[in-house]
């Protein structure tokens, strides 16, 4: 497939578009969370848990990733467990730690809520060559790493 002819753009234009996407995504995340009966933080934490698949996620891992205290993450896990979104069990290697896993029913419920938007976003890729998609994926991955680094820096100050 051939890529479309694109108008010239600048880093400033791209960052403005990214800012708009982030703002819209924040509002969308709030709506998705509301639909599922969760807070945004709870939904973000559930996404981290579900995204881990079969890899174990501990309460401490979740607290670090979500930038919340271990006390706050306990409340988040309690709410997610009560809502049927996750299960928790002691870590067999260290019974002081808790391993949290997404329930298949909850993962499917969240997937169903996100699916219409994800389908539309996937459709956008039809306008791009595989090489262009590779550049987009690379940039988004690297931008995610930069954003995580900025979060870590803000935590230290």
Automatic annotation (TrEMBL):
Domain HTH marR-type positions: 1-145
InterPro entries documented for this protein: HTH_MarR-typ, MarR/SlyA-like, Tscrpt_reg_MarR-type_CS, WH-like_DNA-bd_sf, WH_DNA-bd_sf
Alphabetically ordered keywords of this record: DNA-binding, Transcription, Transcription regulation
The keyword Transcription regulation is assigned to this record: yes
Transmembrane stretches, start-end: none
The protein's name in its UniProt record: MarR family transcriptional regulator
A Pfam short name: MarR_2
């Amino acid at each position: 497939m051939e890529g479309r002819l694109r108008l010239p753009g600048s880093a400033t234009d791209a960052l403005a578009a990214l800012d708009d996407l982030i703002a819209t995504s924040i509002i969308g995340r709030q709506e998705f969370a509301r639909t599922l009966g969760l807070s945004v933080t709870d939904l973000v934490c559930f996404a981290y848990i579900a995204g881990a698949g079969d890899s174990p996620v501990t309460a401490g891992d979740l607290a670090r990733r979500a930038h919340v205290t271990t006390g706050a993450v306990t409340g988040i896990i309690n709410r997610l467990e009560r809502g049927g979104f996750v299960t928790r069990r002691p870590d067999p290697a260290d019974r002081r730690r808790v391993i949290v896993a997404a329930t298949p029913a909850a993962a499917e419920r969240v997937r169903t809520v996100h699916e219409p938007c994800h389908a539309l976003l996937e459709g956008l890729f039809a306008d791009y060559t595989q090489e262009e998609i590779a550049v987009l994926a690379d940039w988004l991955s690297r931008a995610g790493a930069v954003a995580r680094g900025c979060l870590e820096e803000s935590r230290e100050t």
